[in-house]
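Table S2 (continued). Query chain:
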Amino acid sequence: MSFQRTTTFNSRRQKNWSRNQNTVVFISSIKLGPVAHTVLVALMITVLGLIYLTQATRAMSYDYATQKIDSQIAELNTQKNDLQVENARLTALEAVKSSSVASTMTKPATTEYVQQ
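Corresponding output:
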């Protein structure tokens, strides 16, 4: 029995190609029409838009959180200033009560109020 080749081998290697160069060409068997391309482009644009929106809302939520923290800081600064004023007032009263002038003062014998 003799052996016959049923297929022939056609080399795609050209004479100017050297070693370690890709000589295989892949051709897709799936062909898409213009409507399918339009649908795919629209789908990609929609996905990119959704990704952009999620990133933008994430940044806005950080902005709201920062705004809330800034308002808390402003409120605490106001409370701190009020406490400093009250501390200065109370310290001044204690200083006046313990001064030499206040210790030499006497209490009046009678107190009278004027009615209007």
